[in-house]
């Protein structure tokens, strides 16, 4: 089974009212942003044509990689989703 199929099998209970990760890439280098683009296993960080960093927390796997990579720079807030929200793994 391909990675995309495995990720798609998960269920995501998105808390639209309270994002569990907040980021701000303004003022940070291309290299710092690329740590997140390359490091997030779910591919939730993307670099726009104008160099801005885009992020969508809806498919988050709650692995914590982005916090480890940029927890003192771009990632401003990282916490687990509130009770009964977040990812429900379906493929182990
Ligand atoms: S916690 Fe993991 S899956 Fe979620 S945004 Fe960070 S790196 Fe991506």
Automatic annotation (TrEMBL):
InterPro entries: 4Fe4S_Fe_S_CS, Fd_FixX. Coiled coil: none annotated. The keyword Ion transport does not apply. Keywords: Electron transport, Iron, Iron-sulfur, Metal-binding, Transport. Transmembrane segments: none annotated. One of its GO terms (molecular function) is iron ion binding. PANTHER family: FERREDOXIN-LIKE, FERREDOXIN-LIKE PROTEIN YDIT. This is Ferredoxin-like protein FixX. It comes from Veillonella dispar ATCC 17748.
